[in-house]
Design goal:
Layout: E1 20-24, H1 32-40, E2 43-46, E3 49-52, E4 55-58, H2 60-68, H3 78-103, H4 105-110, H5 122-133, E5 141-145, H6 154-162, E6 168-170
Parallel strand pairs: 1-5, 1-6, 4-5
Antiparallel strand pairs: 2-3
Helix pairs in contact: 2-5, 5-6
């Protein structure tokens, strides 16, 4: 999908010092996702041409699933390829182990409990956030819908979100 973005559909990138990323926190069913959608749905006019949604809403799980789908933006260098291979291996390994435990509860009862999260490296999430937030559809910044996820601790998620390319983030 990232190859299909047409530069004509997006205004010039907002200057870095004017970009604003937003982190919306709230318990489930509190309306935080609705708030996130409203923060992205505004019109911008540039030279008589109207643009919508210059920010995108993401969760950590959305970003990780995007990365796992193998987007072109993450195939530009060997380092990213190695990172994605390691990510896929970690996710597949834990998923396979969870399936084994589900199929054999006796084995699961004897074994050490599996981690709740995939426990990926902070640097992996930081790189994925950096690449995805650099794409055309994030001209005005990103809106993050909470921090609860299945890949990293909430603390790491917040740290990574707060440090995207040294842009301003509002919580």
């Amino acid at each position: 999908k990232d190859d299909e973005m047409d530069k004509e559909d997006y205004p010039n990138r907002v200057l870095q010092e004017d970009r604003r990323n937003i982190l919306v926190l709230g318990p489930k069913l509190s309306g935080s996702s609705t708030v996130c959608q409203h923060l992205c749905q505004f019109n911008h006019e540039d030279g008589g041409k109207k643009f919508k949604n210059v920010r995108q809403v993401f969760t950590v799980d959305d970003l990780m699933n995007w990365a796992l789908s193998g987007p072109t933006a993450l195939k530009s260098n060997d380092e990213d390829t190695v990172m994605l291979d390691a990510l896929r291996e970690k996710v597949t390994s834990l998923d396979d182990k969870r399936e084994e435990y589900a199929a054999d509860p006796k084995m699961a009862a004897k074994a050490e409990p599996l981690p709740e999260k995939y426990e990926i490296e902070e640097s992996t999430l930081s790189r994925i956030l950096h690449v995805r937030s650099s794409m055309l559809d994030c001209n005005g910044g990103c809106v993050f819908d909470g921090v609860v996820n299945k890949f990293v601790s909430n603390e790491i998620a917040i740290k990574c979100m707060m440090s995207i390319r040294d842009e301003q983030t509002t919580v």
